[in-house]
Amino acid sequence: MLPYIFVAAATLAVFPILTLYKMNVEKLKQDPSQHARVQNNLMIGVALSEVIPILLIIYGYAQMESVSNISALYLPGIILLFLVIFAVIFIFMQAKVGVPEEAKSMITQFSIISMILALAIPIISIVSLIMMMP
Question: What are the transmembrane regions (predicted)?
Answer without folding.
Answer: 6-21, 42-61, 73-92, 112-133
